[in-house]
Design a protein that fits this description.
The structure holds two protein chains of two kinds. Chain A is mostly beta strands. Chain A is built from no helices and eleven strands. In chain B, the strands form two sheets. In chain B, strands 2, 4, 5, 9, 10 and 11 form a six-stranded mixed beta sheet that branches. A five-stranded antiparallel beta sheet of chain B has the order 1-3-8-7-6, with no helix packed on it. In chain B, strand 7 and strand 8 form a beta hairpin. The radius of gyration of chain B is 13 Å and the shape is globular. The model of chain B has no long low-confidence stretch (mean pLDDT about 95). The chains are: A mainly beta, B mainly beta. Chains A and B meet through strand 5 and strand 10 of A and strand 5 and strand 10 of B.
Chain lengths: ~120, ~110
Amino acid sequence: NAGVMQNPRHLVRRRGQEARLRCSPMKGHSHVYWYRQLPEEGLKFMVYLQKENIIDESGMPKERFSAEFPKEGPSILRIQQVVRGDSAAYFCASSRRTGGDTEAFFGQGTRLTVV
Amino acid sequence: QQQVKQSPQSLIVQKGGIPIINCAYENTAFDYFPWYQQFPGKGPALLIAIRPDVSEKKEGRFTISFNKSAKQFSLHIMDSQPGDSATYFCAARRAGNQFYFGTGTSLTVIP
């Protein structure tokens, strides 16, 4: 049973380019969460999605950032016109459901570097 | 506004010591409190979790103590080892919502 898969593991983009980060949740998981982690900082919530729906995007910047979790395929976090301040580790987590003892499991992250 | 407050920011203990990491929350609707361990360059890994109807949970050398009335919970690591050196995050959530994380505690266990 593969865990949460994120790719690429490392991504380098020039300022102004687009970055696409992918997250394949664990088998049977229909809930996906994206978090951003800056060096020496904690995990900052960005967006919470269920299949084909955005549940909570309160942590995601209104401009340049978007996320989707289609019926088929991985969840995508898209950052348009990247700037140096977007450099961070982006982690995806998935869970089976939202109630009870709902464990969330993280992927290994995508480390984005904007040059 | 930080939904979950975590302390200390960093902690250094000798091998065999018992580091204690504390977290506090305000939202009484939270119903699940996990702890994650993160090594450099890796994603956070679920370590242990507790629900508010339980005051203590043990898994191996890791123990969560939960004080519902004080809205506080803590992680204790018994007989700590150098391999436990990592960053630890507490978190809280309520059903149907996101996970709120503490700011993390960097633990160093000295041989």
